[in-house]
Amino acid sequence: MNFFNILDSLEKFDGDAVGRIEHASRRFFLNRVSRKMATMAAPAVLATVVNKAYAQSDAAINVLNYALTLEYLEDEFYQLGNAATGLIPDMYKRVFTQIGKHETQHVAFLKTALGAKAVAKPTFDFTAGGTLAPFTNFDTFVFLSHAFEDTGVRAYKGQAGNLQAAQDKPYLQAALQIHSIEARHASISRRILGKIRNNAAIKGWITLDEGSPEAVYKGSTSESTVVQAGINLVGLDGLEGIPSDAVFKAATEAFDEILTMDEVLAIATPFIKK
Amino acid sequence: MEKNLLTNAGPVLEKVNRRYFLRSAGVAAATGAFIMSCTLEDHEVDSQVVDLGTGDVGILNYAYALEQLEAAFYTQVIATPYSGMTAEEKTILTDIMYHEIIHRQFFKAALGGAAIKGLTPNFAGINFSDRASVLGAAKIFEDTGVSAYNGAGNLITDVNYLLVAGKIVSVEARHASAIRDLLNPNSADFAGDDIIDANGLDLASKPGVILPAVQPFVVNKISGSGLPQ
C-alpha cells in the first residue's frame, strides 16, 4: 500500500490531515531521523494520528474550540506585548516571554487536537474599542494579563464536567494540565500587578472577589464562595491554626471558582472584532 | 499523553527522592542516633499500613493524605521560621498554610467516617532553619500536589468531586508559581521548562507515581493498592 495514496484519500476526507501528520511526525521523531526513515515508519505514525489525535465527540470539540478561542486571544495579546518596544521593563521580560510561549504552545496543541474542526482565529482589538492602551502602558498590560489568566483558569475549570461527560479522557487530563498552567501564570501576573501598584491586597491567589473587571471575579459562582460540595468551609472543625478573623478570607482563597461559557464569552467579547 | 506525563514527572520525583535520601543519610552519619530511630520507625511502619480505599473515596483519601502532609509542613515552617524570612515570604507562607489547613479539614469533613487517620509526617530531611531547604521542599510539595490532582482527574467518577479537585488544583498551582518565583525571582521558573512540556502542559501523574515519591515524608506506610488506575 502506498503511503502517499493514503494521504491523498485522507486529505479528501479531512483537509488538515497532512498538516497534522507532519506535526505528529515531528513530535514523534524529534527531527532527528531522515525523511526516508520517517516514510518507512509512517504507517505507525498514521495509525497513531488517526486513532488518537482527534477529539472524539461533538461535546469535546465544542469545549476545545472554546478553549482555542481563549488561547488565540491570550497568544496574540502576549505576542503584541512582548514585541512592543519599551513596554515591559527588563526585569519582567523573562516572565512574560515564558507566559507567551505557553499560550503559543496551547494554540498549537488545541489546533492539532481539533484538526479540520478547529475554529479560525478571530480578529482581536485589545484597546476594547479605543478605551485601553495595553501596549504602551505597562500597568494596563499587566492588568489585562491577570484578568485574562484568571478568566482562563475559571473557564477551563468550568468545562471539566463537560469533558468528563464527553468521556474524552485524554482531553480531560490535557485540559487540566493547561488549566494549572493558566493558574501559575495568573499567580505571577497578579503578584507583579500587586508590586507595580504597591497594593498588598493583590496576591497570587484571589481573596474574596477582589479584582477587576468585576465580571472576571464575580459571575454566577463568585470567587468569594465558601461552601464547597455542600460543606461550609468557615464552619469546619480543626481550623485552630488560623486566626478567626482570617478564616473567611483564607477560605475564599483556598478554592478557585468556575465561570460558565456565556460568562467567559461576555468577558472576551469587547476584545473580539469579528 | 501518558508517556509524556511520566517522562515529565519521573525525573523530578526521582531526583527528589534521591536528594532526600542522601540528606537523611548525611544526618545519620552526623548524629549516629539516626540509625536506631530509623529502625524503630521501620518497625512501626510495617505494623500500621494506612489503606486509602477504593473508588472516589480512595481518591479523596489520597488527596486528604497529600493535604495532611502539606498542612503539617507549612505549620512547621511558620512555627519555626528560617533565618532571614522576609515579610513577603512570611505572608506567602502563612497564606499557604491557611489554605492547606482548610483543604485538609475539607477532605476530612467530606470523607466523614471513611477518612483515613491523621498521618505522622517525617520531615527529617528538611532543615527548617534553612531558607533553601524549606523553599526547596515547598516547591516539591506544590509541584507534586499539582501533578497528583491533574493525574487524578480521570480517576474520579462523581462530577462534583472532579469540580472540587479542579477548584483546589489551581490554588496549588498558584502556590507552586509563587514559591518558584521566591526561589528565582522574575525568571521563567514560575512555570519552568523543567516541568512544563513542549505542548505547554503542566505535570500530571497517577497515584502509583505520586505515592512512592511522598512515602519518605510519612512515617505511616500508605497503601494505594485499591485506587482506580
How would you describe what is shown here?
Chain A has 274 residues and is mainly α. Helix content of chain A is 61%, strand content 1%. A two-stranded antiparallel sheet of chain A has the order 1-2. The longest helix of chain A is centred in the middle third of the chain and has 28 residues, at 138-165. In chain A, 42% of the residues are buried. Chain B contains 7 helices and 2 strands. The two termini of chain B are 15 Å apart. A two-stranded parallel ribbon of chain B has the order 1-2. Chain B is globular, with a radius of gyration of 17 Å. Chain B: This is Ferritin-like domain-containing protein. Chain B: InterPro entries: Ferritin-like_SF. Chain B: It comes from Dyadobacter sandarakinus. Chain A: Pfam families: Ferritin_2 (PF13668).
Fraction of residues in H or I helices of chain B: 55-70%
Structural class by secondary-structure content of chain B: mainly alpha
The ordered string of helix (H) and strand (E) elements of chain B is HHEHHHHHE
Strands of the biggest beta sheet of chain A: in what spatial order? 1-2
Index terms:
heterodimer, A: mainly alpha, two-stranded antiparallel ribbon, 2 strands, disordered N terminus, B: 229 residues, mainly alpha, two-stranded parallel sheet
Quick description:
Chain A is 61% helix and 1% strand. With 274 residues, chain A is an all-alpha fold. Chain A has a two-stranded antiparallel ribbon with strand order 1-2.
